[in-house]
Amino acid sequence: MRKPPQNPHDLSRHDLDDILGTINEDVRQRFGEGKLPDYIPSLAEVPKDRFGMALALPDGKIHAVGNARERFSIQSVSKVYTLTLALSAVGDELWKRVDREPSGDPFNSLVQLEYEKGIPRNPFMNAGALVTADVVLSSYDDAEATLIGFMRTRSGNPEIGSDEVVAKSERESGHRNVAMANFIRSYGNLENSVDDVLAFYYLQCSLRMDCVDLARSVQYLADAGHCATSGVQVTSAEGATRINSVMMTAGTYDAAGDFAYYVGLPAKSGVGGGIVAVVPHVMGICVWSPGLDDKGNSLLGRYALHRFTRMTGLSVF
Ligand code: GLN
Questions:
Q1: Can you name the residues that pair with 209 across neighbouring β-strands?
Q2: Is 201 labeled as ligand-binding?
């Protein structure tokens, strides 16, 4: 007779520390794989032999392994939080200025922008993140302080701030982002000056956080918008569902299909090697390992998430 199906969401079935320990050992065998993002010189200097992973549960409990307390540049992981701030400020009006479709193109691609008249495909590719940054800039009196305060409150870490060296490195090498912002502005889809939008964008990308900070910071998306660290309702339950859906279809750019196939969780990556992922109604996750695959996602981070959902059954599928 067929056994009744087991519910993977029942966390008492899993020894999470044991699972993290196994993943950590396996990942360390593969250190050296992946490539550093040499188009941002200061990120190309980070050692590749690092791996951290942290899980944040709705009761505030944390499970962590490896280099989970070493800070790194969060880069595009920040786009989850600016999207949350933009949606809180302008609601569905945001979708008039940026779409929510997967792009199938690399994160820094410009090609669709011209025939789609300056409306980026989604808020997670660079073009869409620039429009989202513009909305945040227009909506909050001091957008930089608002974002930094948001990250500190979500993570419970008052020391979070930006890394001026990384921001400067991006400013000096960000020719593509400059082109993109000007192109979008030519369609009238930026309200603020290109310089102001880029300055905010580089600030958000250069925030330094560790895996525990980021797992805590994304946990509200795993609990219907409620942040366990601060006790605050960050967004509505529906808002959390919507943000998770965009992460699933576009959070890892032109690898979103592959991520759905192998990992099966809403996720957002950054070229600093961090990835946040959400097990809806169960936990927030952050993994970090600096070596990237050819789509700009952490190669070993993705492997770790794949192992995690295989071992626990905790994918959304
Ligand atoms: N700051 C990076 C850039 O603009 C962010 C890209 C990423 O993390 N995917 O290229």
A1: 72
A2: yes
The token duo for 263 is 């990992």
Instruction: Indicate whether residue 270 lines ligand 1 (CB < 6 A).
Output: yes
Catalytic residue chosen out of the listed positions 218, 246, 271, 278: 271
For the CA of 108, the nearest atom of ligand 1: 10
Give the separation between CA 307 and CA 29, rounded to whole angstroms. Answer: 14
Residue of 253, 276, 278, 287 with catalytic role:
253
> Strand 161-162 to strand 274-279: parallel, antiparallel, or no bridges (unpaired)?
unpaired
Q: Which of 78, 205, 259, 275 to mutate to test the pocket of ligand 1 (most atoms within 8 A of CB)?
A: 205
Q: Rounded to the nearest 5°, which phi and psi values hold at 64?
A: -145, 155
Q: Active-site residue 269, yes or no?
A: no
| 253 in active site | yes
Residues in contact with 47: Cβ distance below 8 Å, sequence separation at least 6, in sequence order: 290
Question: Could you list the pLDDT tens digit for every one of the 317 residues in the chain?
Answer: 787 777 888 898 899 999 999 999 999 999 999 999 999 999 999 999 999 999 999 999 999 999 999 999 999 999 999 999 999 999 999 999 999 999 989 999 999 999 999 999 999 999 999 999 999 999 999 999 999 999 999 999 999 999 999 999 999 999 999 999 999 999 999 999 999 999 999 999 999 999 999 999 999 999 999 999 999 999 999 999 999 999 999 999 999 999 999 999 999 999 999 999 999 999 999 999 999 999 999 999 999 999 999 999 999 99
- Orientation of helix 194-205 relative to helix 126-139, angle to 10°: 110
220 is an active site residue: no
Fold of 13-312: Beta-lactamase (3.40.710)
| pTM for the structure as a whole | 0.97
Domain boundaries, the chain: 13-312
Quick one: which of 250, 245, 264, 247 has its CA closest to 302?
264
Asked if 153 and 232 count as a contact pair (C-beta separation under 8 A), the reply is yes
